[in-house]
Amino acid sequence: MRAYDDQNIFAKILRGEIPNTTVLETEHSLAFRDIAPAAPTHVLVIPKGPYVCFDDFALNATDEEIVDFTRAVGKVCELEGVQDNGFRVIANAMSDGVQEVPHLHVHVLGGRNMGPMVVRTG
Ligand code: 5GP
Q1: What pLDDT, in 10s, does the model give residues 17-51?
Q2: Over residues 6-23, mean pLDDT
Q3: Whole-angstrom Cα distance, residue 72 to residue 66?
Q4: What integer is the mean pLDDT of 79-91?
Q5: Which of 2, 17, 54, 116 is 20 to 30 Å from the Cα of 85, by its Cα?
Q6: Does the C-beta of 100 come closer than 6 Å to ligand 1?
Q7: Which of 28, 42, 103, 105 is flagged as catalytic?
């Protein structure tokens, strides 16, 4: 069981306890700039609901939340102007996915060639 920890940093951002640089806010989603950008465009898109990671959200969120979130990701790509050259969307999950913050977020990365998707170690 992966209980949602409401003391995680993104929950604090959603409650307004920690500042953020907002790119887009919708009824069910918030997009803001990553504090340590790994590319010229590095925006995090999160649902406002308490979902730990992607599969939690995909299986348990309402259709309305899922549509809102998916459209928010698309809108961020539009706002950031990365549609023509392309971008990468990443959702890390749990320990093997090396997820640092246990509130679902997708990284929207672009503005440069993002290189290989993963580093092969084997
Ligand atoms: P993860 O490794 O969980 O997929 O990514 C977490 C991301 O959250 C990291 O890229 C990290 O830089 C970002 N991050 C961590 N703390 C904060 C914060 O307080 N504000 C913002 N805007 N981003 C944060």
Answers
A1: 999 999 999 999 999 999 999 999 999 999 999 99
A2: 98
A3: 10
A4: 98
A5: 54
A6: yes
A7: 105
Q: How far is the CA of 9 from the centre of ligand 1 (A)?
A: 8
Residues sharing a CB contact under 8 Å with residue 3, sequence separation 6 or more, in sequence order: none
Answer whether 89 contacts ligand 1 (Cβ < 6 A): no
- Asked if residue 75 lies in contact with residue 24, where contact means CB atoms within 8 angstroms, the answer is yes
Q: How many other CB atoms are there within 10 angstroms of residue 112's CB atom?
A: 11
- In degrees, rounded to 5, the angle at the alpha carbon of residue 52 between the alpha carbons of residues 51 and 56 is 70
In 3D, which of 96, 98, 89, 95 has the Cα closest to residue 117? Answer: 89
Concerning whether 105 is annotated as a catalytic residue, the answer is yes
- Give distance in angstroms: CA of 101 to centre of ligand 1: 7
